[in-house]
Amino acid sequence: MSRPSDDRSHSHGTFDASSSQSLSRPIDRFDPRVRILLVLHWSLAIAVVDRPAVLAWACVGSVTAAAILIRTDLLLAARRLTPLWLTIGLLYLLLPFHLLVSSSDQTALLARIAYGGEGLRIANLAALKGAAIAIALAALIGTLSPGDAAGGLGRLGVPRRLVELMMLTIRQLHCLRDEYIRTRRAMRIRGFRPRMNRHTYRSLGYVIGMVFVRSHLRGVRIIEAMKCRAYTGRLPTLHRRTFSPRLDIPLGLIGAAAVIAVLWFGLLQPS
User: Fold this and answer.
1) Other C-beta atoms within 10 Å of 64: how many?
2) Could you tell me if 258 and 61 are in contact, meaning their C-beta atoms sit under 8 angstroms apart?
3) Pairing mode, if any, of strands 109-115 and 97-103?
4) How many CB atoms within 10 Å of residue 54?
5) What's CA 54's distance to the chain center, in Å?
6) Model confidence over 15-53: pLDDT tens digits?
7) How far apart are CA 238 and CA 255, in angstroms?
8) What is the largest CA-CA distance in the chain?
9) Are 133 and 117 in contact (CB under 8 A)?
10) Is the Cα dihedral 227, 230, 235, 241 positive or negative?
11) With 0-12 CB in 10 A as exposed, 13-18 as middle and 19+ as buried, what is 150?
12) Phi, psi angles (nearest 5°) of residue 226
């Protein structure tokens, strides 16, 4: 029988982690609605531009803005984007290779593998677009707590059901992670060492099944506890940040200027 303290130890801080944070970073002082709208328009502008020079300057702008807004958390944000860097590396490893076929005479064909061409151009565009969008997301959205993000989406007109589904999904992902860590720690204490054999594969299958079953049971206990606390189908968001004209209007104007500049030099300006 699991201890009841397991659920309580993680019940606060998952939906709204901003209650225990001081607004030490500049990004924490801005309204989540402004940050969400800014990232949305920035991502759309980057997605429709195909000029490498403009995209490179957009990457520089994203890095500069991230360094100013999140300061010491820039390295942490870069580490969280490790899957993106690995994907970009895989694109450069595979996409630029192509087969060149030439005929030396009427009967023989010569083929060789070359690196570059259209594949390299597409890899460059994908890398620049991905970096510019992901860095902006990490700086503006990745620093939001789930409660602040849900509150911002709700006040922007996103349906309440979708917002609550997002919050409960994040909560359940935390349950999956906690159960996996607890199960793996228990296996190590019992002397389990993974090897390339049937016993390891069977044990990993048991672990996956146990993680899903135990996280489901834990989720059931959580929803029962929420009903005991008068849950009526609506999740209130605490510590809602209000719109501050002194801070949010300058950020919106700077973001709008950046989006317009990207669109102007990327689409309207003749090459």
Assistant:
1) 11
2) yes
3) antiparallel
4) 23
5) 24
6) 343 444 445 678 888 888 899 999 999 999 999 999 999
7) 27
8) 84
9) no
10) negative
11) buried
12) -65, -40
Which tokens in the block code for residue 196? 């390339």
Task: Give dist(CA 220, CA 250) in Å, integer.
Answer: 45
Mean model confidence pLDDT for the chain: 80
Secondary structure (H, E, C), the chain: CCCCHHHHHHHCCCCCHHHHCCCCCHHHHCCHHHHHHHHHHHHHHHHHCCCHHHHHHHHHHHHHHHHHHHHHHHHHHHHHCHHHHHHHHHHHHHCCEEEEEEECCCCCEEEEEEECHHHHHHHHHHHHHHHHHHHHHHHHCCCCCHHHHHHHHHHCCCCHHHHHHHHHHHHHHHHHHHHHHHHHHHHHHCCCCCCCCHHHHHHHHHHHHHHHHHHHHHHHHHHHHHHHCCCCCCCCCCCCCCCCHHHHHHHHHHHHHHHHHHHHHHHHCCC
Here the tokens at position 56 are 């490179």
- One digit per residue, pLDDT tens: the chain, 271 residues? 444 444 444 444 333 434 444 456 788 888 888 999 999 999 999 999 999 999 999 999 998 888 888 876 667 777 888 888 899 989 888 888 766 655 555 455 555 677 777 888 888 999 999 999 998 988 888 888 887 888 888 888 888 888 888 888 888 888 888 888 888 898 889 888 888 888 888 888 888 888 888 888 888 888 888 888 887 777 766 656 677 888 888 888 999 999 999 999 988 776 6
Rounded to two decimals, the pTM is 0.72
